[in-house]
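Supplementary Text 2. Reproducibility record for the structural model of the 94-residue chain.

All settings were left at their defaults, and a single model was retained for analysis rather than an ensemble. We include the record here because the model underlies the residue-level annotations in Supplementary Table 4.
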Amino acid sequence: MLVVAVDNKETLAFMGIAEDKLEMLFITAQRRGQGIGRNLLEIGINDYEITEVCVNEQNPQALAFYEYMGFTIYRRSELDEQGNPFPILFLHRQ
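Retained model, structure tokens:
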């Protein structure tokens, strides 16, 4: 499932959802810090029942955002999904 935020035909952000997992969340650089990511994720949580997300451990801004939104770390992997040495944190929201 792909959910897109648009304003006056301008794509502001989008998120990809698979089952209960947020697969991706992207906000254009010019629109970051305006609450668009929070609004999209709230839609994902409330309307699509998102309870899981993975984040690169080397992305503290994203980790802080997901923790602010009520997610907590429950697992860590030394490798990303492609087997590369980029630690991934698995977060869950109840």
